[in-house]
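Renewal narrative, Specific Aim 1. Our central claim is that a sequence can be written position by position from structural information alone. The example that follows is taken directly from our test logs and has not been curated for this report. It begins with the structure tokens describing the chain, in the order in which they were read.
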């Protein structure tokens, strides 16, 4: 099976997964306690006729299976529904909030990769030395500490006590500098980095710790391989062995973890956006759950589920492409 057929085969496999996600989310959102219409009309004088009119407008008076079929027919055509509380299409809301979330998640991943891989290599190279012990302790703390708690501690230290970094919001580098009152792009990027630093570290610490542990383990295995011993016997410099022979082999599990941890990073972004007051998809998701805004909850779940499934498929394809031992589904 070629790469193109394998890619198509894996994409087809995602369809039942997405349908399963939509069914579970639809049932959880609609069968949960609370009435979104009465919640929306809190503080507003209303009667039963007004409630029935709003329910008819949003199709809430129809049987559950009819609402699901109607919703999925809209999703297939790119329509994620209409928010009850915000009176806007869910697609517009998601597009408006996607930028901050993707900016935060991708920055956190970049921070995690840039720190975890060098630290993992150094720890493996200096195994059982003080550097290795310190890196393992840091990794253990990073894995076992919740991201939101790290975020709160960073705010208390760097924003409240030292006052050197801002504690809330983001400055988006893709907007014009004058929209923030800055004189040029250099000033815009500087402030964008300042606002991004704390939420990026809070969200990326878990990913960094996980990747560093795996990188260290894989590098130790690679450095103990027979091909590395042979290279040493031939007098190949240690730096060349590390860079050419051990490093490349050790990166395959990292690719898998990066793809599979995408859902963890997006889930962590939900809390980090609340802690740092960032108007991203995570904050929208929390607000929609609190307001019983079914359509927004469904739309965001479908978007996040699709991103996760696509991440898994890309990981599988990249793994099969990089490692020649992995086949494209051929029978042995």
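The sequence written for that structure reads:
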């Amino acid at each position: 099976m070629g790469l193109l057929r394998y890619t198509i085969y894996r994409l087809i496999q995602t369809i039942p997964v997405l349908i399963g996600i939509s069914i579970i989310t639809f049932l959880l959102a609609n069968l949960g306690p609370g009435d979104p219409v009465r919640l929306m009309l809190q503080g507003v004088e209303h009667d039963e006729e007004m409630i029935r009119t709003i329910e008819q407008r949003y199709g809430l008076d129809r049987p559950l299976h009819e609402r699901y079929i109607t919703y999925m027919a809209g999703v297939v055509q790119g329509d994620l529904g209409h928010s009850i509380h915000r009176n806007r299409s869910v697609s517009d809301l998601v597009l408006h909030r996607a930028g901050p979330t993707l900016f935060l998640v991708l920055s956190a991943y970049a921070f995690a990769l840039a720190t975890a891989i060098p630290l993992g290599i150094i720890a493996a190279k200096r195994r059982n030395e003080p550097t290795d012990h310190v890196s393992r302790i840091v990794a253990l703390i990073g894995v076992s500490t919740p991201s939101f708690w790290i975020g709160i501690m960073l705010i208390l230290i760097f924003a409240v006590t030292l006052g050197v970094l801002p504690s809330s919001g983001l400055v988006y580098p893709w907007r014009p500098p004058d929209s923030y009152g800055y004189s040029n792009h250099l000033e815009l990027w500087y402030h964008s980095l300042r606002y991004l630093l704390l939420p990026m570290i809070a969200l990326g610490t878990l990913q960094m710790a996980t990747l560093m542990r795996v990188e260290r383990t894989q590098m130790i295995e690679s450095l103990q391989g027979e091909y590395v011993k042979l290279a040493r016997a031939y007098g190949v410099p240690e730096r060349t062995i590390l860079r050419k022979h051990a490093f490349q082999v050790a990166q395959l599990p990292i690719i898998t973890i990066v793809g599979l941890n995408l859902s963890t990073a997006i889930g962590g972004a939900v809390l980090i956006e609340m802690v740092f007051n960032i108007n991203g998809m995570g904050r929208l998701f929390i607000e929609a759950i609190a307001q019983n805004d079914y359509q927004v909850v469904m739309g965001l779940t479908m978007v996040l589920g699709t991103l996760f499934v696509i991440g898994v498929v890309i990981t599988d394809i990249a793994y099969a492409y990089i490692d020649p031992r992995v086949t494209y589904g051929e029978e042995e």
